[in-house]
Design goal:
heterodimer; A: about 130 residues; about 70% helix; about 0% strand; B: mainly alpha; Rna Polymerase Sigma Factor, Chain: A; Arc Repressor Mutant, subunit A; globular
Chain lengths: ~130, ~190
């Protein structure tokens, strides 16, 4: 529910937002209905004069070069991320390989298979070969 | 499936950016870069620094896009919050003297009379807004220049809508008095 528009409320809104076209959408209709009220009109004129003054502040426009740089930064960002991801995967694979190699070396040295070794397909194949002889 | 806030008009575009669609990237840059550069330039009063900030904001946007879920803030509001924070950091570093003052850049070409006048008027407004207390200045930049809605601007500043309206009204009143004094001196 919107509060009823009074000259006081009109003045508060004009002070805060400026011209009626700058007010929150749901308040504009009520604002337009009161714009010719003498008490409101003076406030509105002052607010609009300030809007005009503020509009004189020019802002830079992005150069085509900056647009290109920003758009290109997207591709660079994802290329870099992909590289980091693949490097991490490579390191992970290398570590896994090193661990497996160490385990195998340990097994060959002690003659005992490391835990879980007999459960591999190689163990099964050995048994099949023996029974088939 | 991506959850889109029906109230966030940028959500579908951001989702496309997150999926790596280059046309969406160009569209987002085209839509947001001018606004964010303008905000940064108006806060920092230095074009080069403003461009650096704008580029940093987009780097953060690229990181955020694939996992963006509209929660309390719209994507546009989030971009404004990031820009504000980066600019505030730079302004603080400038105050501490670690970033140096903005350079006095020479004019690239002599300006015609009309352009000189427009430039002088622009500088006068820039100085007046810069002289406001920080929160009043930021409120005016977000609502008047960036044309954020009052709810979005209040979110970006971390205040209620009532507090935002009070900041706006006080800031605009000070500016009106400032310009009235200037005009009085001109007479």
């Amino acid at each position: 529910m919107t509060d009823p528009m009074t000259p006081e409320r009109f003045a508060l809104l004009a002070d805060a937002y400026g011209g009626i076209e700058r007010w929150p959408d749901h308040l504009q209709t009520q604002g337009w209905q009161m714009e010719h009220d003498p008490a409101c009109a003076a406030h509105l004129a002052a607010a609009r004069a300030l809007d005009v003054r503020l509009a004189q502040w020019q802002a830079p426009v992005p150069s085509p070069d900056l647009r290109r740089k920003v758009a290109a930064s997207y591709r660079r960002h994802w290329t870099l991320r992909a590289r980091v991801w693949w490097s991490a995967l490579g390191i992970g694979t290398a570590l896994a390989g090193a661990t497996a190699g160490s385990a195998l070396a340990f097994a060959l040295e002690t003659g005992a298979p490391p835990a879980g070794f007999e459960a591999t397909a190689f163990g099964e194949m050995g048994q099949v070969g023996e029974t088939g002889r | 499936m991506t959850e889109h806030d029906p109230g966030d008009p940028d959500a579908p575009l951001v989702a496309r950016v997150g999926r790596g669609e280059e046309s969406a990237v160009r569209q987002l840059v085209g839509a947001k870069l001018p606004r964010l550069l303008a905000l940064a330039a108006r806060l920092l009063h230095d074009r080069q620094e403003a461009e650096d900030v704008a580029q940093e904001v987009f780097l953060r946007a690229w990181r955020q896009a694939p996992r963006w879920r509209t929660g309390q803030a719209r994507f546009d509001t989030w971009l404004h919050m990031v820009t504000l924070n980066l600019c505030r950091d730079r302004l603080r570093r400038r105050k501490r003297g670690t970033l140096g003052d903005p350079p006095d850049l020479p004019d690239p070409a002599p300006l015609a009379d009309a352009a000189l006048e427009a430039d002088a008027r622009s500088q006068a407004v820039a100085r007046a807004v810069a002289s406001l207390p920080e929160r009043q200045r930021d409120a005016i930049l977000l609502v008047h220049y960036q044309e954020l809605g009052n709810v979005a601007a209040a979110q970006a500043l971390g205040v209620s809508v009532e507090a935002l309206e009070s900041l706006l009204a006080r800031g605009r009143r000070t500016l009106r008095q400032h310009f009235a004094r200037l005009e009085g001196n001109d007479d």
